[in-house]
Amino acid sequence: MNGIIWDKKAYRFVQVVDKFQGRENDVIILSTVDNEISKFTDNPNRLNVAISRAKDQLILLVNGNESDNDTNISDLIRYIDYNNFSTINSEVHSIFDYLYKGYEEKRKLLLSGQKKKSVFDSENLMYLLIKEVLSDEQFSKYGVILHHPLRNLLLDFSKLTPEEEPYARHHATHIDFLIYNKLGKNPVLAIEVDGYEYHKIESRQAKRDHMKNEILEKYRIPLVRFSTTGSKERDKLTKALREL
Question: Does residue 87 lie in a domain region?
Answer without folding.
Answer: no
